[in-house]
Inverse folding.
């Protein structure tokens, strides 16, 4: 009985030491991956990296991690080639908030200089203030004596965006912006906003002229690791986006 008790104690101690060593190793790996990701993506702050699954050390021996979760609070994505219907210049970058990605089946090289996930899914948000930059330009002539521009975006409820249009007719500005509900969708690398109906600007206008103002798209390119837009939906604080990808580079 005494020998059995000693063996049990030794097993518990060794198990505890293994757990401690495993957690120290995973903490070091998370910090190293976060630093490399910050450098590779040119981030202003260090992202959160969390390696899931236990034990970590046996995953390392196998050369593949079950799941790695990455969180980036503020990410500036490229908008090269973005258009807003008026041929006006749009910002070269757009800020994406709270980008979180779950990467699964992360295989890494022997020297840990690179890591690639078999699949990745994630979520993020583009604020209405950021998205407005794609639509907002100088007032556009939509008819003789009529100019208009988008001045506000907000949650319209039921997955719609409320688009506010300010117009001036024959030199007189309408007393308040006219609003219209718009649908938001993904087309390739673009977040596309299309009005469900046309706003009443007080005069009869051709639909294609009005849509030069109400309809616009924002290109989102250069997301971390090559992940791409999947779905979008209007939400209270902005447009919520889903992203996905395969063979996604975590580092290297």
């Amino acid at each position: 009985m005494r020998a059995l008790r000693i063996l049990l104690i030794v097993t518990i101690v060794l198990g505890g030491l293994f757990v401690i060593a495993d957690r120290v190793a995973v903490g070091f790996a998370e910090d190293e991956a976060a630093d490399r990701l910050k450098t590779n993506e040119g981030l202003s702050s260090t992202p959160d990296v969390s390696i899931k699954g236990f034990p970590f050390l046996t995953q390392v021996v196998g050369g593949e991690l079950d799941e790695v979760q990455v969180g980036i609070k503020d990410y500036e994505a490229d908008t090269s080639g973005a258009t807003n219907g008026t041929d006006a210049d749009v910002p070269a970058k757009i800020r994406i908030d709270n980008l979180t990605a779950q990467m699964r089946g992360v295989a890494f090289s022997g020297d840990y200089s690179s890591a690639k996930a078999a699949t990745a899914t994630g979520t993020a948000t583009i604020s209405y203030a950021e998205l407005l930059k794609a639509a907002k330009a100088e007032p556009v002539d939509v008819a003789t004596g009529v100019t208009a521009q988008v001045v506000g975006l907000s949650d319209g409820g039921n997955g719609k965006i409320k688009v506010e249009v300010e117009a001036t007719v024959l030199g007189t500005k309408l007393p308040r912006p006219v609003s219209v509900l718009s649908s938001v969708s993904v087309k390739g690398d673009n977040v596309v906003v299309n009005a469900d109906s046309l706003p009443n600007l007080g005069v009869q206008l051709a639909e294609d002229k009005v849509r030069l103002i109400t309809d616009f798209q924002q290109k989102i390119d250069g997301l971390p690791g090559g992940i791409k837009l999947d779905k979008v939906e209007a939400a209270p604080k902005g447009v919520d986006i889903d992203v996905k990808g395969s063979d996604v580079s975590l580092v290297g």
Observations:
- The helical segments are 2-41, 56-62, 128-135, 207-214.
